[in-house]
Structure formats: structure tokens, C-alpha cells
Amino acid sequence: MSSLTEKDRPIVQLLLKAGTCPRCILRFCCVGSQMLYRHPHKDLMKDLQEFLKNSQEKEDTVCLDVADPPCKRIRLEHREEGADDQNHNGAILQIPEADVGNAAMESSAVKVCNVCLGILQEFCEADFVKKVCQKVNSADYQFTSFVFSVSLPPQLSVRERAAWLGLKQEMRNLGLPLAKDDIVQLKEAYKWIIHPQLSEELGVPADGKSLFEVSVVFAHPETEEECHFLATACPDCFKPAKNKQSVFTRMAVIKALEKIKEEDFLKHFPCPPSSPKKLCDALEIQCNNGAVFVAGRYNKYSRNLPQTPWIIDGERKLESSVEELISEHLMAEFKADSFNFSSSGREDVDVRTLGNGRPFAIELVNPRRIHFTAEEMKRLQQAINDSSDKIQVRDLQLVTREAIGRMKEGEEEKTKTYSALIWTDKAIQREDIAFLDDIKELKLDQKTPLRVLHRRPLAVRCRLIHTMRSEYIDEHHFRLHLKTQAGTYIKEFVHGDFGRTKPNIGSLLNRTADILELDVESVDVDWPPTLAD
Predict the structure, then answer these.
(1) What is the pTM for the complete model shown?
(2) Which of 94, 290, 363, 525 sits at 20 to 30 Å (Cα–Cα) from 64?
């Protein structure tokens, strides 16, 4: 049952006198009725005034009884046994009730709450809700539900502590015990009020698991001024960070409040807190959609196209890349902010990828559009394929974040098939290379190739050549078809990389060998699923 009772009377009386808004008073009275917080501010103030005038027995109620799920609460102090059983009536008369109520009513229209800094006042009104929804609608996102998040000024925790200590102090002066209970979190109360209004305006439900987030960042100009005493008392809690504009972050303030002694807090901050000079500012209203993941396989037909942008010392070497040719269409259709490209391995700029292609996945960050039918994905695939003769894409589809992990699972245990055009300095005959066909499970020791040493650590990697099949062309050329363990450096296996790969084709043939062309014929990863044409 969520209601005010006679034991709440001194709390209501003292907080109203201090300049606290009705909704914060309900929070300090541990009222868990969501519906009650949604009542208009003026109605709540009137109800509290009537409550103070009420002379019925202490368990009579004036508020609406509503069944609600359990709410999150802030643990201020542990409950004291027997505190709720004390009778408060004898001392309440020391404060004229009518005067307190009237003063609160007269100032409610102009005074900003000394605890929430106006969060539970102006920013709960329909005008602000409409402002938020206008921002959401103008951003042109696709969504079927939303999750609402709010960032509050750090000093709200300070003011909440000050209100509690001031309340406790005043109650002690009146000779009244104070039930050491938990108060409702400000964020929780705010969401109770805002969620139904946003749902009605946006036409979709609030859902804590939604991938579409609407967030409001509140700030207050007096944050540093009000938190400065904590930095003096607890300097270890406030350390500058590169990505933070101020040391007074919410977590730093909370940590300091846990460390500071009660008597030190009372010396440096007014308890209860004084009324603020200004209202909070809604600094930012932001929207963000959870990432969407697109997967497929690509073929690369050019020997002058890198997989990703080729930039050295800030200078671009080639005008495009596989990544860009695919992503530019996805970015345009999904209306995303950015993307992250990944694939099952990579080929060199001069290597083609043939056969059924190489699996890839693209994470589209903060997309405005998220819903695509299978037919729309087919058209998108066709648009990519029509835009360039250097690549082709197949099996383009939406996938989950979890599914992408399958592309990387056991990557080094997978096999890849290659076709290499090889040159030898000495003349060869068919019988000179025929023995290569009989070699199975050839073990290699490959030291990090010189050509990639600038971006990969020096190490010796053991790799397997599962099978080879030679195809004689002329006395200085032959083609070699290889099935290898993923991660094998094929070029180095052919020419030896100055002895850094052992054995190699040159050492096996006892002559100098080099590679002229290399094609990836298959990447044996069973992902993503093959789609019907």
C-alpha cells in the first residue's frame, strides 16, 4: 500500500519548510506508488497541504492506493528497530502547520526544489516531453520500443545527503525519532513520470531491453561550486581524466560521500540544502539505436585492390578497397553513423578471392533504419554488385552480434585453398615437380614475414600444408594448387622469405622459386548460411 500516514507528517512539514518539491517529499517518505508521482505538481502540493491540516488518526490516509512493482531505493542508513512504533503527535505542534503549508503553496510556482534542482518539477511537464519527442521524431529513427536513460548533475547526491541529514537533525531537535528507511531513487521516480508520457507521444512502449535509447543529459551551473568541499575532504576520489571535462563525476562524488564523515559534511554544506539559484539545464537530448550486423561473402577480382583502405603515413595509396565498396551502400541504406568491418582472414592487395568468396561482417553503428525484408537485402546486394566490377557479394543478410563469433571460431583450424603461379630460375620438367603431389601434411616453421613485420610481432608459427597438386605449364612455370591451414603465408612458402619459412618450394625443388600470381579459391568457413538465389 503506497500512502502517507501520520508518521510521515513531520517529514512532510520540515521538507516543505526547507523548499523541497512534493515529489521529492514523497521520495523521502518512501512512497512507492508510481501513479501518485504522475499527479500534477499543483495537485500534489494541495494534497500535502491538506495532509498537514488533517487531524484524523495517524493511520488515516489522504493519498491514492495503487499496487505497484517493487522500486529501486537508495540506502541511506540501516533501519532502526522500533522507530516506526513511536508516537509523533506530541511535538508536531511546535511548528504551525497551516503557515508551513501556505508558505509552500505561495512559493511553489517560483522556487526550484532544493533537492532535485527542478528535475521532478519543470522537466516532468508536457512541454518538455514534447520537446524530447520532437527531437526523437526529427532524427528519423526506426524503432518499435524505447529505453529511456537520464544523466543527472553530480551534486544531486550531495543535496540528497544534505536533505537527509538536515531532516534527521531537525527531528532530533523536536525530540522526535526518525525512521531510518530507504528513499526512492530520483531516476526511478523520474522514469515513473516520464515513461507513460513518452509512450503516448511516441506511440510505442517503454522496454528496458529495447535497442533504441532516448537519453537526456542534465547539467547545473553550480556543480563545481557545490562539490568543491568534497575534493578538499577526499582528494583521492577526484582525479583528472582525459575524457572528462570535470573531476566532479557522479561516481567520484558518490565515492567521496561514502568516505566523508557526517560531522565534516555538516560543517561544509547547509543541511537541509538551500534553494538553488538556477534550474537544471537539459544539456543534451540524444537518440541511439543499437548496432545492426550484416554478413555475407565477397569475391575480389582485382589485383590492385586492398581489403581495407591502404594508407601509409597519412597518404592514401589506392583509391578504394573491398571494405569501402561494400560499406558505402550499407551506410547509405541503413543511415548509420559509422561501421566496423571484419572478415575471416584477409588477402593481399594483389591477390584475388574466387570460388564461394570470403565471409565478412559489418557492424553498422547507430543506424536510423533497421528493418529490411529479404527482398530488400537482395536488392541491396545487387546494387553493390552493379556498382563495381572489382568485387561481387553473395548471401548478404542480417545477423546477430552473437552469430558473428562463428566466423572467428577456430579460425586457425579452418582450411583454405589457393592457386599459385610459380616461376623457377632453372628449367623444370613435369617429373621434377610431380613429387609435390604426394606430399601430405607438410609441417612448416614460418617466422613472421619481413613484409608484415612492421605490424605483427616477431614469432615462429607452425603451419600445415595439407595437400598440393602441381600443374606443369612450361620449363620455367607451373601452377600449384594448395590446401592449407588458415594463417599460412603462401608467398613465403614459395620463395622462402630469405630462409624465414622452412621448408619452402625453393628448398624442395633445390632451386630459386618465386610467386607471380596468387588466388584464394576457397575459405572453408561454414558461415554465413547460404541463401537461395
Answers:
(1) 0.82
(2) 94
